[in-house]
Amino acid sequence: MANSEPYEYRFLGDFDNSYIFTTRYDVVYRIRFKPSFYVLDAEPAIADNVYELVIAQIEKPEGPIPPDERILYTIAGIAEDFFKKDLNIAIYVCDDSHGKGKARKRKFDGWFVYLNFEGRGFMKIDQGFHEADGFSYSASLIFKSENRLKIQIITALDELAAKYNQPK
Amino acid sequence: MLIYETKLYKKCVLKKQCFLLIENQEKNQTDKTMKTTEQKLTEPPKSLGRWLMESKRQTQKEMQEEYRNNPVLQAIVSELKKKNGKFRTL
Lengths: 168, 90
What we know:
The structure holds 2 protein chains of 2 kinds. Chain A has helices at about 45, 70-80, 100-115, 150-165, and strands at about 10, 20, 30-35, 50-60, 90-95, 120-130, 135-145.
């Protein structure tokens, strides 16, 4: 089977908004789109459709696990399923205060380009945050480029950054 | 920032109340072992970033714990392992 072939996954229900899959190395992943209406202070048509993307490795065998590109394609397939609801917005948050978080963010950005998500009709807006207490993190919003509220979504993220970012 | 956080908190609590009502109704109809962490998000955030990161870590942890304690999820995983893990035996 090709390395670009996604693994079979299961959707665990509308309420929980989570998906589960296993890999050829018996690693178990769970992906959840967690309702996050409190993040953007925007009109309900936007705020109520914001979901935080949470990826968790919930089981893995002992010892090193070889790289597995099929995970990437599986997560992409799951994302496409999630975005069947046109107004859905996914937010991915990464802690920038340590190398591991930065690496995770680079990996996430790389996926977006590698899987040609832009060509598939998605937009990603990135925003760095540097809060007054010195904590820094980045947030990426992903939504359908045909989302009729995209201008308002971008504005809402800008406003959030303006409120939380420490002036330089 | 305090005004914004208070506003955000009030909005969050109001929406959360509706959300919990729907959640309870749905819980009774579907899998009773499914749990959510949303109740904890009614606390006002001191720092949005720290709050989001903590929420993410907590969700990851809860997803792991839920899997360990939920036989339905374990059965789904066993079935998926048979389908996705077949290369192991080649």
